[in-house]
Design goal:
By secondary structure, the protein is α/β, with parallel strands linked by helices. The protein is 39% helix and 13% strand. The protein has one domain: 3-Layer(aba) Sandwich (Rossmann fold), CATH 3.40.50.1820.
Length: 423
């Protein structure tokens, strides 16, 4: 398939781009039900726009690119080629910053906080050509050459974990970016699962290590021996039945839309359900302890969760249950066919030789600092481990924390420039 590029320019893009935010209808109904409440009309307006619409509204150049993976998934990337206020001209020699989101998320994670605060804008103003990936199955990448994401007959579209995202999606993104820009290397910034998939890619396809100036791992998820998230802890023992049970119920994805969330809450969130912790921690909203601007909540909820496969969650459950960072465990027979062994092999992290900069928060429950140190001990080229100064910095502060620029993003740029000087 020939890649498609859509260029949106400033305010005109809002009318050209017909899509709305993933959960725009939900946010609009809440706003009307509360007569606006304490949220401004500007927040409502922003909450109804999809990620490219938001970028265009605030006067930044935005491009939409589509790429097709070798296994047929059609993925969407968003590009901010230059800044609005600084470094605001197109320059083919600009260093490239490719950002990859976490589980149940999308490119919007790095946009929603707005100019001056969100990571994508901060990087663009610092002189980077910014590309934002969207993994298969999320709101922006729900397409395939032959498979249908909304089919109730089977869930073949959804039979993937983050193993496939690392093994197929990332190579498609990276090859396309480098071919389009004519450059040979780029920076990779991955939050949570975005870090997982980087490790998957470079362990399974080590030739890609040479394509990275740096890996900026923002709480990269790998080992989870010390994971303290009740949702994962409660689901991990059932990793072998989560997916099959979901298929029997007619689901291959999780949290793709608010209708699904409403139905799931009504039918599967009762007391005694194995999904109780999943319901309380994921569906009910943002953790009150997070260091975020509460007026932005409608905007966050308009874009998250952005959808993922059941298998992605089950795969993390396997990491916890078996205390091993390894490939997806199908069953003995399928493993033998796919991997040549009855048990899935571990990812060979000794092959991840790209310069690695690992960032972590002391209060991160999802990626505990002990597990990050364990990861660092197995990577052969760790330039540094960087603890966020704020003691309460948690997993979601990497994307939503109101002080993320001051305590992290500005330092990221310094480290990225340092990595460039090492070439």
């Amino acid at each position: 398939m020939v890649p498609k590029i859509v260029l949106l320019v400033a305010l005109a893009a809002i009318t050209v781009n017909a899509r709305r935010a993933p959960h725009a209808d939900y946010i609009e109904s809440l706003f009307k039900a509360n007569n606006g409440g304490r949220f401004s009309s500007d927040i409502l307006e922003d909450s109804l726009l999809d990620a490219p619409g938001l970028v265009a509204k605030y006067g930044y150049p935005i491009e939409i690119h589509h790429v097709t993976t070798s296994d047929g998934y059609i993925l969407e990337m968003h590009r901010i080629p230059h800044g609005r206020d600084e470094h605001n001209t197109r320059d083919p020699s600009k260093p490239i910053a490719f950002i990859m989101h976490g589980l149940l998320s999308s490119s919007a994670d790095f946009i929603v906080k707005g100019p001056g605060n969100a990571l994508a804008y901060v990087l663009a103003e610092a002189g980077y050509d910014v590309w934002l990936g969207n993994a298969r199955g999320n709101y922006y990448s729900r397409d395939h050459l032959t498979l249908k994401p909304d089919s109730n007959i089977n869930q073949n579209f959804w039979k993937f974990s983050w193993d496939e995202i690392g093994n197929f999606d990332l190579p498609a993104f990276i090859d396309y970016i480098l071919e389009t820009t004519g450059q040979s290397k780029l920076h990779y910034l991955g939050h949570s699962q975005g870090g997982t998939t980087f490790l998957v890619l470079n362990s399974l396809r080590p030739e890609y290590n040479e394509k990275f100036i740096s890996f900026q791992g923002l709480a990269p998820a790998s080992f989870m021996d010390n994971n303290d998230v009740s949702m994962f802890q409660s689901l991990a023992p059932f990793e072998n039945v989560i997916e099959s049970t979901a298929y029997l119920l007619g689901y291959g994805e999780v949290f793709g839309d608010r209708d699904f969330i409403t139905e799931f809450k009504a039918n599967y969130c009762g007391e005694g359900s194995i999904f109780t912790e999943l319901c309380s921690s994921t569906i009910t909203g943002l953790n009150e302890r997070e260091f975020y601007n509460s007026t932005m909540v409608p905007l966050f909820l308009a874009h998250a969760p952005a959808g993922a496969s059941i298998r992605q969650i089950a795969h993390y459950g396997q990491v916890i249950k078996f205390e091993a960072f390894r490939r997806y465990n199908h069953n003995s027979l399928t493993n033998l066919i796919v991997y040549g062994s009855r048990n899935p092999p571990p990812y060979d992290l000794s092959k991840v030789t790209a310069p690695s900069y690992l960032h972590y928060g002391a209060s991160d429950k999802e990626v505990n600092y002990r597990d990050l140190h364990n990861l660092a001990s197995k990577l052969p080229n760790v330039v540094g481990k960087y603890r966020i100064e704020r003691e309460t910095f948690n997993h979601y502060d990497f994307i939503w924390g109101i002080d993320a620029r001051q305590v992290l993003y500005d330092k990221l740029i310094t480290l990225m420039k340092d990595a460039e000087s090492r070439l």
